[in-house]
Design goal:
Elements lengths: L10 H8 L2 H12 L8 H9 L7 H14 L3 E4 L5 E4 L6 H13 L5 H12 L4 H10 L12 H15 L1 E10 L5 E3 L6 E11 L2 E8 L4 E6 L3 E10 L3 H5 L3 H7 L8 E9 L3 H8 L6 E2 L4 E9 L2 H9 L4 E5 L1 H16 L3
Antiparallel strand pairs: 1-2, 3-4, 3-5, 3-8, 5-6, 6-7, 9-11, 9-12, 10-11
Helix pairs in contact: 5-6
Length: 339
């Protein structure tokens, strides 16, 4: 090996840099190469020089083979010059695009954290692929959370569940003056967290409240001063009896309301809407060529009525009569505002 004396360093410093050569080579290949941007060995040598690392062609060939043995998918292409690029990666471009779309469209993630996460996801591809994805991904006028702490609250809640301990927090709502109004006059909640639910781009905590001996849901971005409590969780038996999939499907509103079995009649055109809302396991009863009906458990709430109203004449509440009457009254109440 050639040792070169340098001001402020020396052969020892250069030797230390040389030990990192294969790591920097992997970094260069990962960041700068892809199917449309192969890199020649001479270009690799020049890139390594930017990191103050000297390399010979033979050592590069040896390093490329070592990286292949390690499991890196290095593809060789022949043309006017022989080039190399990283082929198969942890995530392919279509997969990363889906993830980046989700991050950008999520109302739960703040603008600052959105940009940070997009940069991190971009590091999984080459810089050329990342730029291409940024041009493809575009979600305009999306409402984003103003609370940076909400993102970290999810991590705290996950740690509490891993440690099987309780959490404490204050819970609030916003009033028209955009100031926080704390529930329970600002007193802390102390509950046993069991799972996180996602509804309309919002996270909700499902937790056991020992005082009421029941489960409650709390919107995560409405929590403040969240801390882990050194007390074991309670409510394990009750949670074991909860079917989370069914529970999440039928909860239209994130506040306790009366649950009933409701029969709904839909136009055939509403088939996909019903499948998206209730899933494939709900039995469909075909009434005629134009309509079908289902019977499902729902929580009778303003949000349920709002969902019905959004479907217009494409849906009808068949029964029970009490739910038909409640919906009729809701429609009359709203209509009265415009008379």
């Amino acid at each position: 090996m050639c040792y070169i004396q340098r001001r402020g360093g020396g052969s020892v410093a250069r030797t230390s840099r040389q030990k990192l050569k294969i790591l920097y080579l992997y970094k260069i290949l990962h960041e700068k190469t892809d199917e449309n941007h192969p890199m020649s060995v001479q270009e690799m040598i020049e890139e390594l020089r930017q990191y103050d690392i000297m390399a010979e062609r033979k050592s590069i060939y040896d390093d490329l083979e070592a990286l292949r043995t390690y499991g890196t998918d290095i593809i060789q292409v022949r043309g006017k010059t022989t080039g190399y690029y990283v082929g198969r990666r942890l995530f392919e471009m279509p997969e990363l695009r889906v993830l980046m779309d989700c991050v950008q469209s999520s109302k739960f993630i703040s603008p600052k954290k959105t940009e940070t996460m997009l940069c991190k996801l971009g590091c999984l591809l080459s810089e050329h692929q990342t730029q291409s994805l940024k041009e493809l991904v575009c979600v305009r006028n999306r409402v984003k959370s103003r609370d940076e702490n909400a993102y970290y609250s999810v991590d705290k809640l996950a740690r509490a569940m891993d440690r099987d301990c309780k959490v404490s927090f204050r819970f609030y709502h916003y009033y028209p003056n955009k100031e926080r109004i704390y529930c329970r006059n600002g007193r802390f909640y102390r509950v046993s967290p069991f799972t996180l639910l996602c509804d309309e781009d919002r996270y909700y905590l499902l937790a056991w409240d020992s005082e009421t001996e029941s489960f409650h849901r709390y919107r995560v971005d409405r929590m403040s001063a969240l801390e882990l409590v050194d007390e074991p969780r309670e409510g394990h038996e009750a949670f074991a009896a909860v079917n989370i999939s069914d529970y999440a499907k039928r909860v239209f509103e994130m506040f306790p309301e009366e649950e009933q079995m409701v029969t709904l009649r839909f136009d055939i055109a509403m088939t996909e809407v019903v499948l998206d809302r209730f899933g494939w396991d709900v039995p469909f009863y075909i009434e005629n060529e134009e309509q079908f009906s289902i019977t499902v458990p729902v929580q009778i709430s303003p949000k349920f009525f709002g969902w019905l109203f959004g479907l217009g004449r494409g849906v009808e509440v068949v029964g029970p009569e009490s739910v038909r009457e409640a919906y009729r009254a809701r429609l009359a109440e709203v209509s009265g505002q415009y008379e």
